[in-house]
Design a protein that fits this description.
By secondary structure, the protein is α/β, with parallel strands linked by helices. It is built from 14 helices and 13 strands.
């Protein structure tokens, strides 16, 4: 069974803007609030940390957002291209490339193939749907965005894998008379594909295609999505998927003492308290959500911005936590609360290892772990210490973890009859 892979992730946040009195850190915040010298320091520190990952035996995950003080990377391809040349061992995951918001999947295929060739076949392609607040800055149409996403997905993968000269593509969203990318990717037929998902529909679609399904900060409920994926994989004849088909992203703060680990986590958790500071007008553009999801949104009387409840997390015993933005929001949530909700792993190396194992066992096996080892206002020095201690004391044990029993338990659970009302 493949060993568990661990990717380090940071959003490269411009935290100097977090104290600005604004109803949105995305889309509308004037860039006069960005000091290029400060941004240069932030970006280069994050690049140095990813370079360190290559030495520590960790893999690397980057993402992208637009018009935002919460993420300074406007394209995952930019840092990945730099890291492809500078690193030697680490897998490079761009999670990712919001193909439903991009004008040209073929152009993206060319960029990805180039990165994969430079890295010698270490690229992992992440294809999220794209957040609703990305619609406006990318000048995209939210209507039928899911259909556009899968069409772009199909075109992208065909462009990466087709080797017999130009092909034609005509669809509702894309029209290409001649697609024939150079160079073709190092990995054949194309690099592995990761898809983020938080809904049953996405889990089914990803399971049908056999990609890696990644849940981000989903907590214990990630198992429900993984089980939907497993059932769909069996229905289409792909067999029972192993842990390598599943990924999970959580915050991580480890220390020589429990208190040190918790302190680091609380600084990283500044991510929770800022990423949801979004103008309400950008959170649910018309047509973005399918009708059932929209109905649930209205039932919850959902709002966003500083009054928002962006990360409603639930512990295994059913206790609900509110971790988001707003006056005092999330400030009373302890490190242990975040562990209880499985949105963070923290404490001493032994505690972090045990928490990860517990989550993997509950989920039926997880082969790809994405840890946010830097976030909020955690300094470069503290990030280096955080990653180094994890790599030295936790990573070797995770690589030796045998998840066979977790998979067997998931298989047995799915063989039980589904309860009906």
């Amino acid at each position: 069974m493949p060993e568990l892979r661990v990717y380090h992730f940071s959003e490269q946040a411009y935290h100097a803007a977090w104290e600005i009195e604004t109803d949105s850190l995305r889309v509308t915040l004037p860039n006069r609030n960005c000091d290029p010298a400060v941004a240069s320091n932030i970006i280069n520190e994050r690049l140095d940390e990813w370079m360190l990952c290559d030495e520590l035996g960790l893999d690397i995950m980057v993402n992208e957002h637009h018009s935002s003080a919460t993420c300074l990377s406007p394209s995952a391809a930019i840092p990945l291209a730099m890291l492809a040349r500078q690193t030697r061992r680490a897998r490079l995951l761009g999670l990712g490339f919001a193909v439903s918001l991009r004008r040209d999947p073929v152009w993206l295929a060319e960029e990805l193939a180039y990165i994969d060739v430079v890295s010698g076949g270490r690229l992992d392609i992440g294809l999220p749907k794209g957040a609703p607040y990305e619609i406006s800055p990318t000048n995209s149409n939210p209507v039928k965005i899911t259909e556009r996403y899968w069409d772009a997905h199909d075109l992208l993968l065909k462009a990466l894998s087709h080797q017999d000269g130009p092909f034609n593509w005509e669809s509702e969203w894309f029209n290409h008379r001649q697609v024939n990318i150079w160079p073709r990717p190092f990995q054949q037929p194309h690099p592995p594909v990761f898809v983020t998902g938080g809904s049953p529909g996405t889990a089914r679609s990803v399971g049908e295609r056999g990609h890696v399904l990644v849940t981000i900060l989903g907590g214990w409920k990630a198992r429900e999505l993984f089980d939907i994926y497993r059932r769909r994989s069996l229905e289409v004849g792909r067999g029972f998927p192993g842990p390598d088909r599943f990924g999970y992203c959580a915050l991580m703060g480890v220390g020589e003492t429990e208190a040190e680990g918790h302190r680091r986590l609380q600084e990283i958790a500044g991510y929770f308290r800022t990423t949801s500071i979004v103008g309400e007008a950008f959170m649910n553009p018309p047509g973005y959500m399918p009708p059932p999801a929209n109905a649930q949104w209205l039932k919850r009387n959902q709002t966003r911005g500083r009054a928002g409840d962006h990360f409603p997390a639930t512990t295994r015993d059913g206790r609900k936590l509110k971790i988001g933005s707003g006056a005092g929001m999330g400030t009373g949530v302890s490190a242990q609360d975040m562990v209880d909700a499985a949105i963070a792993f923290t404490g001493t190396p032994d505690q972090v290892y045990e928490q990860i194992v517990e989550f993997c066992a509950h989920s039926g096996g997880v082969g790809n772990l994405m840890i946010m080892g830097q976030g909020g206002e955690l300094s470069h020095a503290e990030t280096v210490a955080n990653l180094s201690l994890f790599s030295r004391e936790v990573l070797p044990r995770l690589r030796e973890l045998d998840q066979s029993a977790f998979v067997d338990a998931a298989r047995e659970r799915l063989e039980q009859p589904v309860a009906t009302a």
